[in-house]
Design goal:
Chain lengths: ~260, ~475
């Protein structure tokens, strides 16, 4: 098997100094594929997403995270980003006074060598393409990062950044939550625009709805801090129709197991 | 940001050893002055100084009177701690040719040149800062501007030359805005002033290019006790810019300037200054403007560096419909106290003012906003709005606010808003997750915080300010 993949190996983790949330996650997203990660509230999906990006409010107890065979566990968030990882945040923060254009130029240049900064024309061309792919008005790039953005605009901004930064692997943390169908399609189109042989994505969602527009190569189910089931895209349909209980029963997990993990 | 390498990676890192990131401007030259006055402040020093400047009698008398006032007044009993400021250790006058300390760019210490380079300052300006700027004055740009200005009757000189060449205009306006009686440090400045700019713009003349103090790079233009006098005749319009974001190359430990600005009816004057003193300096400055009918005065005041700064640009709105505006930036790092703010006096009807203050405290730094809005009786329908925002970068950093508001007129509208925020871990993580190293992420947040003020600066100054912030933020990560 090729090394080109995002891999999570037996990952155990907790809130720094607090409760254990991930209890042995195993997951592989090969480059070129889009996988969905589903699961009830409190199963650890968002924790996994933030942990992969290097959020310092979590602590890894055991296991590993690897990009193309290289462990990134010891890397700072910015080093992971430069290694090719991207997290589309569920709740992106506001950064007053920092325009999207300025920020993205700095972020791109952080990936390049000194003296090899991205050219102004090249940068704006790239930015314009991304804005267009998201069916957005060009004036958006001069707005300050998420200042006064609606929930939908924030999600769009996360995908915009993905398109400009062109990561090797992206984790999308509930990029569909709170979106109406039109906005959902726009976001999905953006993600689909990024798809290709050198791009892998893990799409975290509660709803099968998003997966109508971003069709996954595989679906994983998380419960009580572990991936308990993986299957083809049809698995998402089953979950939508039947809920999670049947899988949990199959693996001998009670619903309260999640509730405890969530508390 | 990415174009600035961490100091330790630099090929010249060995030479920079011992140069603490946050204190990298604390350089000083070996003392090789050929002449110095004695230490301390007394009549003899003032007489000698006035003699050496070949001043008219009235100026010497003015200086001596100011000295007496200073003696009587004593230091202010409020504000930052000045107990370590010992006048007996200070040279109150050093001849300009001696102040330079060096005549050749090659003599400027490597680490100083390095700092300038890292700030991306143009070489001509670097040389001026280091006191070896002889070439710059002859530059084409300045010459053509100067000719243009002279045709319009604009006077733009260092203050000594202004006094010699335009004695009438000078005497008519000098010390009318800030008399020596005003405050202790104004009295000290009046006694020993040296250097500064003299600007006179005739009625109706508008200047589109900012008058930049660093055009006046003969050595007299920069000093410990500079005295700047700016006069905008009715209907004139211009922007004066002083200082720059580069560390001021100066081993003096006491800076006490006085800036007087007279904005006559319908004139529009902007004064911008960004100062970055080395960390041993007490920076105690009086800046004041009087503003006539339907005239407008704008201050942009940036305070970085220094040990203690006390600086409150004041605007006296004396004519009906006068407008005043203050944008203030203060950045206090380890061991620094920036006590800055603004005063606005509404003394006529329909006057308006706005104050925006942005302060940042880092390490053990402390930023204070000290402001006064005063509405006199009879100043009907005056409007004033004050907004001060403080950003704390560390757990031990401090900020405080002293907003004084005195309203003696029922029809006044006065607003005051203050916010304090801390550097937010979520923001840092977010920016880092996009590939920015931690110090760059912090610098970006700080830049964003200052953006509402920085965008009022001409581009090259805004760029310098950003670089300086990045440099200040380097090394803030453990």
């Amino acid at each position: 098997m090729s090394d080109n993949r995002l891999e999570i190996r037996n990952l155990h983790a907790r809130i720094a100094g607090g409760e254990t949330i991930l209890k042995g996650v195993d997951l592989i997203v090969p480059s070129g594929e889009v996988h969905a990660l589903m699961g009830p509230n409190g199963s650890g999906k968002s924790t996994l997403a933030k942990l992969m990006a290097g959020d310092p409010s979590y602590e890894v107890l055991d296991g590993d995270i690897l990009i193309d065979g290289e462990s990134v566990l010891e890397l700072e968030p910015d080093e992971r980003a430069r290694a090719g990882l991207y997290l589309a945040f569920q709740y992106p923060v506001e950064v007053p006074g920092v325009s999207i254009a300025n920020f993205l130029r700095l972020a791109l240049n952080a990936r390049r060598e000194e003296g090899d900064e991205v050219g102004v024309m090249e940068f704006y061309a790239k930015l314009q393409r991304a804005v267009k792919a998201l069916d957005w008005d060009e004036s958006i790039i001069e707005r300050n990062l998420h200042e006064g953005f609606s929930g939908g605009e924030k999600k769009r901004s996360e995908v915009l950044q993905l398109l400009v930064l062109e990561p090797r692997y992206a984790i999308l943390d509930e990029s569909d939550s709170g979106l109406d169908v039109d906005a959902l399609k726009v976001v999905a189109n953006g993600v689909n625009a990024a798809r290709g042989p050198n791009f892998g994505a893990l799409v975290i969602t509660h709803y099968q709805r998003l997966l109508n527009y971003i069709v996954p190569d595989m679906v994983h189910v998380m419960s009580s801090g572990r991936v308990i089931e993986s299957g083809p895209k049809e698995l998402a349909m089953d979950l939508d129709a039947k809920g999670y209980d049947w899988i949990r029963e199959k693996h001998g997990i009670t619903a309260s197991g999640d509730a405890v993990a969530h508390a | 940001m990415s174009d600035l390498r961490p100091i330790n990676d630099h090929p010249d890192a060995a030479k920079l050893e011992g140069l603490d990131h946050t204190r990298q401007y604390d350089f000083q030259l070996a003392e090789n002055y050929s002449y110095k006055s004695e230490r301390g402040l007394n009549k003899r020093v003032i007489e000698k100084l006035s003699y050496m400047k070949n001043e008219p009698e009235w100026m010497l008398k003015f200086r001596l009177r100011a000295f007496e006032i200073a003696e009587k007044k004593g230091r202010p009993k409020w504000g930052p701690d000045l107990s370590h400021l010992n006048f007996d250790e200070i040279f109150f006058y050093i001849r300009p040719q001696d102040r330079k300390g060096t005549n050749s760019w090659d003599d400027v210490p490597e680490e100083v040149r390095e700092t300038y380079k890292r700030l991306g300052i143009p070489e001509a300006e670097q040389k001026m800062l280091a006191g070896v700027g002889a070439q710059y004055e002859s530059e084409m740009v300045y010459h053509s501007l100067k000719e243009e200005w002279e045709k319009q009757g604009v006077i733009f000189l260092d203050t000594e030359t202004g006094l010699q060449e335009h004695p009438e205009i000078f005497k008519e306006h000098f010390a009318t805005v800030v008399p020596p009686e005003d405050n202790y440090f104004a009295a000290v400045n009046s006694a020993v002033w040296s250097g500064g700019s003299f600007v006179y713009v005739p009625a109706g003349v508008e200047i589109s290019v900012p008058l930049q103090a660093y055009f006046l790079i003969n050595a007299q233009s920069m000093g410990q006790f500079e005295r700047t006098l700016i006069i905008g005749e009715p209907g004139s319009k211009f922007h004066y810019i002083e200082g720059c974001t580069a560390p001021t190359y100066n081993s003096d430990s006491f800076h006490s300037g006085v800036i007087e600005i007279i904005v006559k009816d319908r004139a529009n004057v902007r004064y911008s200054t960004i100062q970055n003193w080395s960390h041993n300096v007490y920076n105690l400055v009086t800046q004041r403007a009087i503003v006539g009918e339907r005239a407008s005065m704008g201050w942009l005041d940036g305070n970085l560096g220094s040990k203690v700064t006390m600086k409150y640009p004041s605007t006296y709105l004396l004519g009906e419909g006068a407008h005043g505006e203050v944008l203030s930036i203060a950045f206090a790092t380890d061991g620094q106290h920036q006590d800055a703010g603004a005063k606005v006096i509404h003394a006529a009807p329909n006057t308006t003012s706005s104050v925006v203050s942005k302060s940042i405290s880092k390490g053990t730094g402390r930023s204070s906003y000290r402001g006064l809005v005063q509405i006199h009786e009879g100043a009907t329908n005056a409007r004033s709005n004050v907004e001060c925002d403080a950003l704390l970068l560390d757990e031990h950093a401090m900020t405080d606010t002293y907003p004084y508001i005195e309203i003696n007129e029922k029809t006044a509208h006065v607003g005051h808003e203050a916010t304090v925020s801390k550097l937010n871990d979520e923001q840092i993580f977010y920016l880092m997750s996009r590939g920015l190293p931690e110090d760059a992420a912090m610098a970006l947040i700080v830049r964003g915080f200052l953006d509402p003020v920085a965008k009022e600066l001409p581009l090259e100054y805004a760029v310098e300010l950003n670089r300086l912030i990045e440099l200040e933020m380097e090394g803030s990560v453990g």
